[in-house]
Specification:
Distance between the termini of chain A: 51 Å
Largest interface: A-B, 19 and 19 residues
Structural class of chain A: alpha/beta
Helix content of chain A: 40-55%
Largest sheet of chain A: 6 strands, mixed
Shape of chain A: globular
Oligomer: homodimer
């Protein structure tokens, strides 16, 4: 596999290797189904439950793969440094705990309290900072400098080992839902969806892959239409707090090559889909994951979905701040 | 097996027969675990997820067994009549839908809207009535009379076929958690816990069985202390809307023989346990099921739990009216 400094996306073989590497640490998450949601929308839905993954999201896969490989390539134990408002932060802190390493996490001021507390519970050191990317990056540089030459930054998505770890979700989907013909995944920085694209398109190229994105974010939708990476202008405001990252430089080319479409979803659609998934599947789905549900409910209106019958929706996480969710909309 | 009119509790063989009868219709629900809850309380917890059962609760098992047996013993198709504020109502309506039968359900005025709507979605006819038992019983007699001689009442718990169907949860627990040494189940009319007692105590008598009951209900706790069935004086007020039935005449002797203890839980403990289970297990647990979680968190304080290590908590249902849950308590 490419050295992380090489900045080359992983291959399907790198993803298979990642699957072996992380196997002792991760859960092979189940697929759930719902006849009532199937009847409502005319598809056979298969929900890949990464909300049941360790630390409550898929992020643990990529992080464990990246950190394990960092350790292999060094004589001294690394000191992990990361920035994240939530799920990646928890994954880095938990990985550090399991590996006996230190984790220093920069968390912007909009990070949910429940996620900050979880990082601390796993033994991570949390550094607050402002909300703008220059502030976050300057805080990270400060923390890295403080920690000295053993400090290693684990990027949340623009890292081939992280992408390879997330891609193991795609391998499992192909094993668990062999008849799958479309996959719907929420996109943020693009680590998960790019990993899934590489794994699935290499093995079963006919599978269509759809990205779900909040309308209030939109850089992925605009980039997809423009066929080039369009930067994000300001921090977007959405209930899906896990979906506010700009698309990565390493992930974008993979998406441009493989995505079937980007499906924008409104805030109202995300909230309705969140409650519907709670009620029908009896599982806790975070707003970022609900964006994928919402997109899958709109799939039937897209001409590219003609012929699609078996749709796998990736439930990317279940970390919700239950004290601050908006009330259920009246129907 | 005893004829339903015989009013004799089922045997473990009746429960094994029920398991065969309902196998094509039910889900074999999974067991979930949580290292964080284990660390908090010092047990190995195994959560038996009947919230993922069809219709969102264990009730479907007993109902399907009872109705299948009613059909076997008749020349003309029965017309199903039942009373229930929620989960039994949904189970009867769904069973009727699958068997091509009619279901007429008397639902008292305190029934959650979400459960009434679900019964209607399954094609059941709903009859509103007041909240007091005499009103409910008189409404049932009226409905039965209207439906004529083919009307058959499916009692929610005082019916040996229903008890046998619920007892299949116990058989599955022994298969899925062979090292189990205690089971915690919420109790209402007693159909589920009596079925579990008969199945588990017949096969592995060393297993301790604990009933969880809201303090605001209390007839099971008082009956257990008094060693005789003590009637309920008025309809109890608790967030656990599924746990307000008085203990049955057929279920009580089973409980008296087999229960290790009854663990009362407060409303605050139920609500906290509900949110904790949502956050840690990422599953939707209804307040009645949260009562069992709350009781299992108090188990370590009971002298009867000395030596207990592997505790199975039955998650009896996941039907929550999300529009009307109390907010998460601040910690």
């Amino acid at each position: 596999m490419a050295n992380p400094l090489d900045d080359v996306p992983p291959t399907v073989d790198d993803i298979r290797k990642a699957a072996e590497t992380i196997k002792p640490f991760i859960y092979r998450t189940p697929i759930m189904t719902s006849t009532s949601l199937d009847e409502m929308h005319g598809f056979n839905f298969y929900f890949k439950c990464e909300n049941f993954q360790r630390t409550g999201s898929f992020k643990f896969r990529g992080c464990m793969n990246a950190v394990t490989n960092v350790c292999l390539n060094r004589d001294t134990p690394p000191i992990l440094v990361a920035f994240s408002s939530g799920n990646h932060a928890q994954a880095v802190a938990k990985t550090a705990q399991l590996k006996g390493l230190k984790a220093h996490i920069v968390m912007p001021s909009y990070s949910p309290a429940v996620k900050i507390n979880s990082v601390k519970d796993f033994g991570g050191s949390v550094y607050g900072c402002g909300t703008l990317m220059p502030e976050i990056m300057s805080k990270i540089e400060e923390v890295k400098k403080e920690q000295g030459e053993n400090a290693v930054m684990i990027h949340p998505y623009d890292n081939p080992y992280v992408m390879a770890g997330q891609g193991t979700v795609g391998l499992e989907i192909l094993e668990q839902v062999p008849n799958v013909d479309a996959i719907v995944v929420a996109v943020s920085g693009g680590g998960l969806i790019s990993g899934i694209c590489i794994a699935v398109k290499s093995i079963k190229p006919s599978v269509k892959i759809y990205a779900a994105e909040p309308e209030n974010v939109g850089d992925k939708y605009r980039s997809f239409l423009a066929k080039k990476r369009i930067p994000m202008e300001s921090r977007p405001k959405t209930i899906a707090d896990g979906l506010t990252a700009p698309i990565g430089s390493l992930t974008w080319p993979v998406l441009q090559e493989h995505l079937t479409d980007v499906i924008p979803v409104t805030e109202e659609e995300i909230i309705s889909a969140m409650y519907l998934s709670w009620e029908r599947l009896k599982i806790i789905v975070e707003p970022s994951a609900a964006a994928a549900f919402a997109a899958s409910f709109k799939l039937k209106h897209l001409s590219s979905s003609i012929g699609v019958q078996n749709v796998c929706v990736v439930v990317c996480g279940g970390n919700v701040d239950l004290a601050s969710i908006p009330p259920k909309p009246s129907t």
